Amino acid sequence: MERTLIIIKPDAVQRGLIGEIIARFERRGLRIIGMKFIQMSRDLAERHYAIHRGKPFYESLVNYIISGPVVVMALEGTDAIQAARTTMGATKCSEAAAGTIRGDFGLEIGRNLVHGSDSVENGQTEVALFFEESELVGWSRDTDRWIFE
Ligand code: DAT
Ligand code: MG
Q1: What is the distance in A from the centroid of ligand 1 to the CA of 31?
Q2: Ligand 1 centroid to 50 CA: how many Å?
Q3: For position 33, what pLDDT does the model report?
Q4: Could you give all domains of the chain from N- to C-terminal order, each with its CATH number?
Q5: Angstrom distances, CA of residue 51 to CA of 15, 54, 96, 112, 126
Q6: Set 115, 116, 127, 131: catalytic member
Q7: What is the chain's pLDDT, residue by residue, as a tens digit (149 residues)?
Q8: Given ligand 1 and candidates 70, 82, 109, which is best to mutate, with the most ligand atoms within 8 Å of its CB?
Q9: Is 115 a catalytic residue?
Q10: DSSP string, 66-95
Q11: Contact 71/35 with Cβ under 8 angstroms?
């Protein structure tokens, strides 16, 4: 089963959208296996966004993600990576489809509310960067058999 790391970014936290965003992933059927409310350090942010180092938006991206507290979640499910990204919508909010998180709540690429892993490998790496194995909960949900084939 795939794992994805979701971050509810500082703009979404400040705007009171934590519950709204969690609800969308929860209703989608993804199973929460880890969740915490943190203030990211610059060091952690730089490690998380290492792949973007050197790009013109890198500095503002790091400053944005550490500008206030965030919620980090590890989610598990069938095709979790693709499913979560479809629920999030396109990176540039103004181009994101209505019905997606970014399409319903955002306008700007640099205030795009949510992060989600982009590959199976990055899902594993990113979950491991933010969670100790002991912080992840392996559980079977009573509704799993109605959600997973
Ligand atoms: P995503 O968050 O959809 O996976 P990404 O991994 O390509 O997008 O980029 C990470 C973040 O960096 C993205 O959420 C917003 C910011 N970003 C990406 N491309 C940008 C650009 N051209 N200008 C400004 N910010 C950008
Ligand atoms: Mg990305």
Answers
A1: 26
A2: 13
A3: 98
A4: 2-135 (3.30.70.141)
A5: 28, 9, 23, 18, 12
A6: 115
A7: 899 999 999 999 999 999 999 999 999 999 999 999 999 999 999 999 999 999 999 999 999 999 999 999 999 999 999 999 999 999 999 999 999 999 999 999 999 999 999 999 999 999 999 999 999 999 999 999 999 99
A8: 109
A9: yes
A10: TSS-EEEEEEEETTHHHHHHHHH--SSGGG
A11: yes
What confidence score (pLDDT) does residue 132 get? 98
User: What is the distance between the terminal CA atoms of the chain, rounded to a whole angstrom?
Assistant: 12
How confident is the model at residue 135, as a pLDDT?
98
Closest of 130, 133, 103 to residue 37, by C-alpha: 130
Say if ligand 1 is within 6 A of residue 119 CB.
Answer: no
Please tell me if the CB atom of residue 110 comes closer than 6 angstroms to any atom of ligand 1.
yes
User: In whole angstroms, what is the distance from residue 139 CA to residue 55 CA?
Assistant: 39
Which atom from ligand 1 is nearest to the alpha carbon of 90? Answer: 3
